[in-house]
Amino acid sequence: MTTSTTTTSLAVSGLGFAYPDGHRALHGVDLRIGRGERVALLGPNGAGKTTLVLHLNGILTAGTGSVAVGGLPVVKDNLREIRRRVGIVFQDPDDQLFMPTVGEDVAFGPANFGVTGDALRVRVRTALDRVGMAEHADRSPLHLSGGQRRRVALATVLACEPEILVLDEPSSNLDPTARRELAEVLLDLDVTMLMVTHDLPYALQLCPRSVVLDDGEVVADGPTRELLADPEMLARHRLELPFGFSLT
């Protein structure tokens, strides 16, 4: 997929990376995501998905090739702005929520980037409104359900107004109602989205495009429905639809 520079949220070119023990996790990965796209990143355990994500906000920077977010290269001098532009929502919301109240958790990120006063209050209120959690601003995150904590964790990232929203297994450990509620929130967001998931039906529901990564290489990139309709490709890369699930 080709996208012009002015409309590209993420540009990864020739990205390679090896860990200190010699394990090569990425082999010349090329990936471009247009502004406003919703893309699922699929692949088996050990495929290199986490390593790729860690390059997007500069946690890892020692690889070959290049990464740019909204045209800004992911290099040491740009890391503060890159980490505002790339918002990662972790698989476990308890890794992201640590303040006494929901409102304080959501305020923490933008405050760290210098937003104060009325502007900060507007950021918090807007982010909580977007995930349907505004009425819980004064509650402790510890007293929320798992699905509610997942949405608050999402709000903490949205409050920083990121260029790209990266979701790590967003549907994991959610009951069917919480899963549906989160999907409704995500579908309503006007932000570029990269969703790392093993949940193929969720990928189909939320992401028109999917990229399959295996053994550190992009092995497929195309419309999600077409990729999931290819049983040989799924089997070859250890991906599996739930028993009885139909694409029709």
From TrEMBL:
Residues spanning the membrane: 52-75
Presence of the UniProt keyword Iron in the record: no
SMART domains associated with the record: AAA
Gene3D superfamilies, per the entry: P-loop containing nucleotide triphosphate hydrolases
InterPro entries reported in the protein's UniProt record: AAA+_ATPase, ABC_transporter-like_ATP-bd, ABC_transporter-like_CS, ABC_transpr_CbiO/EcfA_su, ECF_ABC_transporter_ATP-bd, P-loop_NTPase
Pfam families documented for this protein: ABC_tran
Domain ABC transporter: 10-240
Example of a GO cellular component annotation carried by this entry: ATP-binding cassette (ABC) transporter complex
Locations listed in the record: Cell membrane
Keyword Oxidoreductase: no
Keywords noted in UniProt: ATP-binding, Cell membrane, Membrane, Nucleotide-binding, Translocase, Transmembrane, Transmembrane helix, Transport
Primary location class: membrane
GO MF term (any one): ATPase-coupled transmembrane transporter activity
Entry similarity comment: Belongs to the ABC transporter superfamily.
Protein name, entry field: ABC transporter ATP-binding protein
Species this chain originates from: Pseudonocardia petroleophila
